[in-house]
Design a protein that fits this description.
- The structure is a single chain.
- By secondary structure, the chain is mainly α.
- The chain is 60% helix and 0% strand.
- The protein has 8 helices and no strands.
- Helix 7 crosses helix 8.
- The protein is rod-shaped, with a radius of gyration of 65 Å.
Amino acid sequence: MSRSIRPDAVLVQAVIAGALSFAHLHDLAAAAGQSGWKAWAYPISVDLLLVAAWRRLRAGRSRSSWTWFAIALCASLGANVATAGMLDLHHVPGWLRILVAGWPALAFLGGTLLVHSPTEPAPAPTPVEDEPTAPEVEMHRTDTPKPTPAPAPAPELPAASPTPAAATGAPAIPPALLDHARTIADDHRASTGEPITADALTARLGLPAATCHAIAAQLQLT
């Protein structure tokens, strides 16, 4: 997509300055004896040398660009001043005719040097010095580290003594039932004067034989 050209004050000034300078150079060349197409070629030659020198200055490629830029600028300004009434164009001096006649060779030399001159090498980048690194410091301990005491073993819990019922594998007897059986045994001893037997206690309690035998074992009955 082509970019549209917007009107700009600088662009308008450039067009006006170029047109006037072009006309003045043409008039001066015609007055110096360059007739026909030759008079039109002189403004083109001056402007091309001026543009070539300016581009070399922008690129910064050659120190001689300033010289050729000044020569082309003096030629353009000189033509503007000469045609402004400072010079009689009907009686041009001989030295001006010589300058106008020798200008094509001078412009060709300048353009050739500007275009084909060797480019100056770019300056080498300055090496960045590495920042000094801090020296490594080795640390040695002069004192002997104290040994870490071993943790004290946890005290062993005493083993729970098995209950008589758990040791013998007998069923657990509730305390109330055991008290009731002891009361029956005491009443039997008080009435008969003899301890009650396991079979008699079983008959009095009316419980399973295993439970009654466990009660008799705790009461130490035979």
